[in-house]
Design goal:
The chain is α+β, with helices and mostly antiparallel strands and about 80 residues long. Helix content is about 15%, strand content about 35%. The chain has a single domain (about 10-65), classed as Ubiquitin-like (UB roll), CATH 3.10.20. The protein is globular and about 40 Å long. The structure holds zinc ion.
Length: about 80
């Protein structure tokens, strides 16, 4: 599928991405999210079904499989 960004000649390819969302003030990271990613500009499309699934993951308060280190860029700029 052709990229939808203006003047980008790229094509989307299926990839599993690391998706970062802000949820109620927290940063949540979900890995292995299936998405379409443009090989040239990096534009990311996530299918509506996948978005529904992400909402389900966020709403069901299960314990995450992994914890990730989180750095705050802001704290290095002071
Ligand atoms: Zn593109």
């Amino acid at each position: 599928m052709k990229c939808t960004i203006k003047n980008c000649p790229g094509e989307y390819e299926e990839k599993n991405i690391v998706h970062t969302v802000k949820y109620k003030g927290d940063v949540i990271v979900i890995k292995n999210v299936p998405a379409l990613v443009c090989q040239i500009c990096g534009d990311v499309l996530i299918k509506p079904d996948t978005i529904k699934m992400i909402d389900r993951i966020l709403n069901n308060k299960s314990k995450p499989e992994l914890q990730v280190p989180l750095y705050d860029y802001y704290s290095y700029t002071r």
